[in-house]
Recover the amino acids of this structure.
């Protein structure tokens, strides 16, 4: 993390540095929440989990890195636009729920409760297949929401400047890349967890 921070400071304006630091703080706080839940044996409900999952997935600090990586001019992105904020939220949720689907077998075996499929099973009494189906449908609905918001933003009266378009494109690239990475990642394969951890 220190290396990323030092590199970011050389290329990022103060506003982006502050944004990144706030997102990292949210990420660390969310892990304290998960640790507490494990210690006391608490399984959150769906609403609480999804709110915290925005941070446990660390997508938002990664989104901040779109700016220097893609050559986006930070000051030209419309950071106050509610639709842009909604696209960040949706991209993060697509990433984290897709991750939950990929990691479900491993987390089930390890007894973790911080997974949307496990929460649907434990808190709502759903059988495994139904919980997986609902989680898949949740991801599909978030993708449809992302595409609808993206189209709506593009049709906005004043349109989008190139930097905002590039940033939004980066949000889509993040969730697509995460999906394809999850399909190949050894860390989600139950019988290879111990080997991959070495």
């Amino acid at each position: 993390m220190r290396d990323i921070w030092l590199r970011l400071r050389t290329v990022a304006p103060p506003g982006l540095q502050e944004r990144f630091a706030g997102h990292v703080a949210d990420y660390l706080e969310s892990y304290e929440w998960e640790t507490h839940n494990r210690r006391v044996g608490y399984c959150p409900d769906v609403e609480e989990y999804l709110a915290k999952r925005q941070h446990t997935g660390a997508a938002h600090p990664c989104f901040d890195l779109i700016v220097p990586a893609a050559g986006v001019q930070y000051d030209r992105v419309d950071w106050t636009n509610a639709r842009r904020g909604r696209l960040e939220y949706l991209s993060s949720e697509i990433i984290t729920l897709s991750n939950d689907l990929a990691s479900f077998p491993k987390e089930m075996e390890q007894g973790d409760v911080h997974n949307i499929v496990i929460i649907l099973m434990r808190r709502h009494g759903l059988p495994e297949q139904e919980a997986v189906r609902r989680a898949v449908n949740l991801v599909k609905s978030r993708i449809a929401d992302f595409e609808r918001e993206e189209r709506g933003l593009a049709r906005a009266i004043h349109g989008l400047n190139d930097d905002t378009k590039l940033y939004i494109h980066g949000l889509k690239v993040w969730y697509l890349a995460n999906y394809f990475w999850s399909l190949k990642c050894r860390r989600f394969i139950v019988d290879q967890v111990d080997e991959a951890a070495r």
Observations:
- The two ends are 21 Å apart (CA to CA).
- The longest helix spans residues 82-110.
- The CA atoms of residues 37 and 104 lie 18 Å apart.
- The chain has ten helices and no strands.
